[in-house]
UniProtKB/TrEMBL annotation:
PANTHER family, per the entry: DUF4139 DOMAIN-CONTAINING PROTEIN
Coiled coil: 103-130
Residue numbers spanned by region Disordered: 1-25, 313-360
Superkingdom, taxonomy of origin: Bacteria
Species: Hyalangium minutum
Pfam families recorded: DUF4139, DUF4140
InterPro entries for the chain: CHP02231, DUF4139, DUF4140
Composition-biased stretches (Polar residues): 1-11
Entry protein name: Aspartate ammonia-lyase
Keywords assigned: Coiled coil
Biased composition (Low complexity): 313-333
Record domain DUF4139: where: 226-535
DUF4140 domain residues: 34-131
Length: 543
């Protein structure tokens, strides 16, 4: 049975349970590289140690105590030796502080602060009492002035002198009460801090200390290089991007990785790699259940339902598309929280070496930067927002994909805001919004009317949309306006666009988006009309 080792120090007593190893060879094996996953990290250590022929037990101190023991691997890279076994050891360091002088000083400080605060509160109470009496005197004096004036008693100069003196004293007492309140609040904070410090002296400090033990079998005396790999939790990374629009014709995008880690060990001057592999996804097959098939009578009535369909537009395709839109393929990746890699595992390497302390704070590591031409335009979607936005369309010219994540937006005049981007493959076009244009105003009005066609008995619903654009600047602006109309998927519903009563010059795509490219004159306005009709066949019900 092992017993704890007790060590005395000038500031107290500490002991380890179980005891630290003795008769071993220490190996300096710092962290050389780290591969970060979505919710964990793979750590690699390397170090050289001198061994003797036969069995040697080497120890690596300072290893993260949260290491997953089953992931521990150790091997000899160079040298005539092999690792017979490797394991983790943990010990609890118990330290009992003994500080009678410091505790007595803190107790005297707390008592002095409490006495001072009590005196301040008493002075504040006395000042409040005097202030209330003066307020009562002012109230009574104000009531007696009309009565004295009616009897011809008193003079205006005397009244003014009396009231000035009372008001001056009232202000002094009010300032004294306010200052006493601030002083009492400050003393309360100091008492709270000192109390916490005093309570900490009575607490026994516990700290988990861990180390790695490995049995190395050497054929002869000499130096061997040992590599150690293991996995630790409490470490993760997420993509983070910065986009800068230069003169509305160039876009510079920097892709970075935000790293957090609180593993208990600092990573100093290490090579960082970022992987989108999901090691925690699991490979267990789903449980099979029996499917019961039943016959159901066909419903005689047809029920239609209008639904919103989201069109993914993160990547706009490798070639320019007409009208500023495209029909990208549906995403093939699994919809999981974390890093979207487009369905293929990505491994990104940070240039140079980095230092990530174990404090749980974010650290931003730049990965790559690319710059290319941008097609900027002013766009508006009045149905969603009555604003005109500056949109920039650029191409990912880097060999690496732009992973889905937040984007910090910058322009020549500085920070603009934040937005989000989806996965963008290499050589694929994408768009970013750089905020609204304050010089342009948008207003949208929608009117609907319904009737039944007397001949066909179809129920017709007509929608008329009016869009008002105003330019408050002294320069003409070119704006791309996008509206939408429903798209029918069955023959029982018909959607017809009234081109005669709609503003000309629009383009209509397969998704029902109707786009105009218009010029709004300086200090002028413009009106656009969109009219369409939705017809339901007889007997068709709308959900």
């Amino acid at each position: 049975m092992s017993t704890a080792i007790q060590i005395s120090s000038p500031t107290g007593v500490e002991h380890f349970d179980p005891p630290l190893p003795t008769g071993t060879t220490a190996l300096e094996a710092p962290v050389r590289s780290v591969t970060l996953l979505e919710d964990r990290a793979q750590v690699t250590r390397r170090g050289t140690v001198r061994v003797k022929a036969g069995q040697n037990r080497i120890v690596v101190h300072g290893v993260a105590p949260v290491i997953q023991d089953v992931s521990l691997r150790a091997e000899v890279v160079t040298g005539k030796a092999r690792v017979a076994d490797a394991r983790m050891r943990r010990s609890l360091r118990i330290r009992t502080a003994d500080k009678p002088e410091a505790a007595r000083a803190l107790e005297e400080k707390i008592e002095s602060l409490q006495h001072e605060r009590q005196q301040v509160l008493e002075d504040q109470a006395n000042a409040r009492s005097r202030f209330e009496r003066i307020q009562q005197m002012l109230h009574l004096g104000a009531e007696e002035i009309p009565e004295d004036a009616g009897w011809g008693m008193g003079m205006a100069a005397q009244w003014q002198d009396s009231f000035d003196a009372l008001f001056r004293k009232s202000r002094q007492l009010r300032e004294s009460m306010l200052q006493a309140s601030f002083t009492a609040e400050r003393l309360a904070e100091e008492i709270s801090v000192a109390t916490v410090q005093r309570q900490a002296m009575d607490r026994v400090d516990h700290q988990v200390v861990s180390w790695l033990e490995a049995d190395v079998l050497a054929d002869a005396d000499g130096e061997v290089e040992v590599r150690i790999d293991y996995v630790v939790p409490n470490a993760l990374w997420r993509p983070l991007h910065t986009a800068r629009l230069l003169g509305r014709s160039q876009l510079q995008l920097t892709s970075s990785a935000a790293v957090w880690q609180a593993t208990g060990e600092d990573w100093k001057d290490v090579e960082l790699k970022f992987s989108t592999a999901r090691s925690s996804l699991g490979t267990e097959p789903p449980v099979l259940h029996a499917d019961l098939l039943t016959a159901k009578k066909k419903n005689e009535s047809v029920v239609v339902q209008a639904r919103q369909v989201q069109v993914q537009k993160a990547g706009l395709g490798s070639t320019p598309s007409s009208g500023g839109s495209s029909s990208p393929a549906a995403p093939t990746s699994v919809d999981l929280p974390g890093v979207d890699d487009g369905g293929e595992t990505r491994n990104l390497k940070a240039p140079g070496k980095s230092t990530i302390p174990s404090d749980g704070r974010p650290n931003v590591i730049p990965l790559f930067t690319f710059e290319g031409g941008a097609e900027s335009a002013l766009v508006t979607f009045p149905e969603l927002e009555n604003k005109v936005f500056l949109r920039a369309v650029a191409r990912n010219t880097s060999p690496s994909p732009v992973l889905a994540g937040p984007v910090e937006l910058l322009q020549d005049n500085g920070f603009v805001g934040w937005t989000q981007t989806l996965f963008v493959a290499p050589q694929e076009k994408f768009e970013l919004s750089f905020g609204p244009d304050d010089a342009l105003r948008v207003r949208r009005e929608e009117k609907k009317s319904s009737k039944q066609n007397t001949v066909s008995k179809w129920n017709e619903s007509t929608t008329n949309v009016s869009i008002y654009l105003s330019n408050l600047s002294g320069e003409a602006r070119h704006v791309v306006v996008t509206e939408r109309i429903p798209v029918s998927e069955i023959e029982h519903v018909k959607v017809e666009l009234d081109e005669e009563k709609s503003s000309s010059g629009f383009k209509l795509d397969d998704h029902g988006f109707c786009t105009w490219k218009v010029d709004v004159p300086a200090n002028g306005h413009l009106v656009l009309q969109l009219r369409f009709k939705v017809s339901l066949a007889p007997g068709v019900q709308s959900a």
